[in-house]
Amino acid sequence: MTNWWRDAVVYQVYVRSFADGDGDGIGDLAGIRERLPHLVSLGVDAVWLTPFYPSPMADGGYDVADYRDVDPTFGTLADFDALLARAHELGLRVLVDVVPNHTSDQHEWFAAALAAAPGDPARDRYLFRDGRGERGELPPNDWESVFGGPAWTRVADGQWYLHLFDPRQPDLNWRNPQVRADFREVLAFWLDRGVDGFRIDVAHGMIKHPELPDTGLDEQISLLGHGELPYFDQDEVHEIYRDWRQLFDSYRGERIGVAEAWASTSERLARYVRPDELHQAFNFALLEAPWSAPDFRRVVVESLATTAEVGATTTWVLGNHDVQRPVTRYGDGDLGSRRARAAALFSFALPGSVYVYQGEELGLPEVLDLPDDVRQDPIWTRSGGTDPGRDGCRVPMPWSGDAPPFGFSSGESWLPLPEEWKTATVAEQESSGDSVLRTYRDALALRRAIPALGDGELEWVDTPEGVLAFRRGPDFVCATNFGTEPVALELPGELLCRSDAATGWNGVLPGSTAVWLGKIHEESA
Ligand code: BGC
């Protein structure tokens, strides 16, 4: 047993936007395979691929019509096998995304459910109910869709079905044994092909309160991850993961499950990573914390304590395909860029595992000014154009060259890349000594070389207000200045890495900057 996940650096590939191998303007599996060397030189341990299964793409592929195949837009099963084999040759593990909470409305089961009469077993794979009101004209309860509007849609015969997301993503009924059995087969299908594990979409959602009670709340979505809701984080969901864990453990090679779970407290989140359940759960607390020393410290202390209690490690996440990119979240422009780079160094030095969302290693900002007619996120349409949604963090990767789409595709990219990304391309940053990419590569190489980093203990060091410093082992310190003014620090060790473009270390830490100090032992270098 290596317990590789306990301190793995996992890189999230948003498949549509990473690299296009066939020139149709949409990223695909062949494109990813060609670009794997970028991930090797970045120094990550594993890759998580967002859904690439056949899908009408009502929600970027999180609406799956067939869990055992590849959408032609992204390639074929043979392309998947080739990508997996190449990744393994290069020493990269591969996680695939599974979407068990809901299917696409184009899934054969949903077609069968619609064709069947109310009460038919075909309907029981989903959550169909009669409506309220004299003629059933009102939804069965007051639940809201995460994407806005009611979570129920009425079908021709008058019944309603539940969809916690878009109406084209009907929720499965996980109390139905057929659903459970089929999903086990889906997992086995990918495990047999050799995947190293799964990122489990909406892992907190599969079991709903059996009575489907009203929440009585006017606004429910702000409670996601902060409060209790009868459709999320129900105790019974853990039975499913106990069962899946047995399946994972029956395969050779430490296959893992990672929960995308939103729970009301970090204690409840830690329940997903108890020893007989999943291996990791995304810890979104750092991503949600404002840029401030006390907030970051509180999150670290709490996250480490709650996961330690169940014997697991935590995961550090600054961004993903659902949230505004860190550069923009932390203030945009130069300030946001400095903070995002410091936050990365801070998180890479913490105990546990780290997730890097594609483009973070280039310091990409959110694209805020996409034209309305190219936006594809259902949040944009369901909010009547009031919420821009998540397309701004899904703009394709800039690889090289002087003009959009910067080597992403030989065709026109599905979302336009900004002209200004000319200086942000991988090729450009490779040739510049002080680029974000260089900082990421240096830091991840050090993380591998220094045994005290990754899994293990952390000890806080006393520092002036606005600065956080912690020690890992006797010879390593990470210090981060959350303020804007420079602070003099008395810390031992030589400079290993710093988040700003400066060189050398004179004992003064500029604002919005993180620094790694220490000593590399000969034998570990
Ligand atoms: C995914 C989203 C998706 C939603 C519904 C999530 O949490 O990360 O991108 O829209 O699940 O599947």
TrEMBL record:
Pfam families assigned: Alpha-amylase (PF00128)
Matching CDD domains: AmyAc_OligoGlu_TS
Any one Gene Ontology BP term: oligosaccharide catabolic process
UniProt entry keywords in alphabetical sequence: Glycoprotein
Annotated ranges, domain Glycosyl hydrolase family 13 catalytic: 12-394
Single GO molecular function: alpha-amylase activity
Nucleus recorded as keyword: no
Family according to the record: Belongs to the glycosyl hydrolase 13 family.
UniProt-recorded name of the protein: Alpha-glucosidase
